[in-house]
């Protein structure tokens, strides 16, 4: 090394480590897809599949017999009803086969034939009876007005976007930290790096910083996409949503660190990541409301970090909530984050 | 030159469950020498080196590097050690230059990235991803990473295993350049030509113990001759009678093959052939070669290095 000059000039190791993580991520097309494109694709597909449609008319059979025509005509005038004129046997068969929800037998007295255990039959009975009674001259003692709630903010896509944001932060945190750390351990890269004077805190911090850096792309992309394509509103503070997403991102980076802290094969860590993410993807209200689960498991579900993140983002985005309204969820996230980092750092296998 | 040994370890023991990988190993490596640990796979070389490198804790025993201990001076030592592990996988999709910049950032002082690139002749490959380098280029990059802090003590664990002859010579050139600067190298290898060419002294390790120590020349001298003769006959020859032939040392049998060392081949070989004839035997094969460290190992253990 004779002709070589010694220099103390070098870049900060934390910067270099963060840059390394970022470069490795940015050069992996699959990672880019799962982090940035997949949530948008999911929003697009589910947004279209569950878009709000006008209510379907109820299918009704009127039993064909003399004297039933006025009844048939009265129902035919109602846009919420689709009427068929069928013989007694055909009408009964259509009911059994589910082709109609109710059969109206209009003789001297009026009979409704339907299965009360079928929700659509119960709705059909109410709609048909209302239409026929009105045709017979019934008036309402109290005047009512319908206020239809189909404006942005209460549709399925509005519900879905905060869920997808949380889901995406969870997946990229656990896979992007947990899986990558184990992969580095398997390839003996962690061992190689600990053979240098590299600070271990810098090494771990670089993962967290890169997660925060990813978020700068993930969050605006999803919110902007949802706004432009589906007109999904953000009613609360954007800054608060960014803050919550950062907190969520750090919590899941910590959990990633925890699942990756000991595992020595990528198969093990993949199993662990799935074990952690799957129950939350199902229970935490990503695709449907977590309130649908029985009351007895609600405290458990509310204690999950993904539930806390999604609930709080949803409250801010759709309900315009402030910090005070989501204090419990923030606390849940802080506890998970603190717990994960503390345990992961204690147990971390550097070899 | 410093009188403090670069490496000193006493009664080093490392157990993995019931398996004893290192069995009471003592070693002293002087400053500015290139010291070789030679032994077959599984002899305990890598375990020993990783304990010395502070990557593994010994079950018992003492280690001192540059006069300091890992427990009290870990950070100080890390800044002064260069390490190339047996299998180094650097990140696949980082370029040569990015990898060196990363490793250089860990050390307070050292050569510039430009100088490191020149040193390992990878300037042309600076923008190539690690995954696209050849085996030799990868290994040179691994050595460059080890040199990023301008170490006083360099550990190279099997630096040329699996490389083609040209790449091996390039690595040897790097080690020789480093040695010429008066720095210390600890090298493990199972290639005796590598140890003979690079090392000032060699410790032969088997089953976690040092079984021979000295300069390559001293170890070969210990065979009693610098030439090795190996032969087989149509019927078994008595070992003791062969040993009695003037000029013959260290007779060993491996199956029906006899191996012996001699000092002066031109004088001893005719006597040996005469002895075989007198005993009514016919030679079925005969070969001779200069004694190597491999022969030292065979002589000590009855096994070959790559058995």
Main sheet properties of chain A: 4 strands, mixed
Radius of gyration of chain A: 29 Å
Task: Give the quaternary arrangement of the chains.
Answer: heterodimer
Measured as a percent range, the helix fraction of chain A is 55-70%
Q: Determine the number of helices of chain A (DSSP H or I, runs of at least 4 residues).
A: 13
Distance between the termini of chain A: 30 Å
Shape of chain B: elongated
What's the total helix number of chain B? 11
| Approximate shape of chain A | elongated
Mean pLDDT of chain A: 89
Major protein interface: A-B, 33 and 42 residues
**Average pLDDT for all residues of chain B:** 91
Please report which band the strand proportion of chain A falls in: under 5%, 5-15%, 15-25%, 25-35%, 35-45% or over 45%: 5-15%
Residue runs with pLDDT of under 50 for 5 or more positions of chain A: none
Q: Strand pairing plus helix content of chain B: what structural class? A: alpha/beta
Which spans of chain B have pLDDT < 50 for at least 5 consecutive residues? none
Measured by DSSP, the beta-strand proportion of chain B falls in 25-35%
Helix/strand/pairing category of chain A: alpha/beta
Q: What strand order characterises the main sheet of chain A?
A: 3-2-4-5
What is Rg of chain B?
23 Å
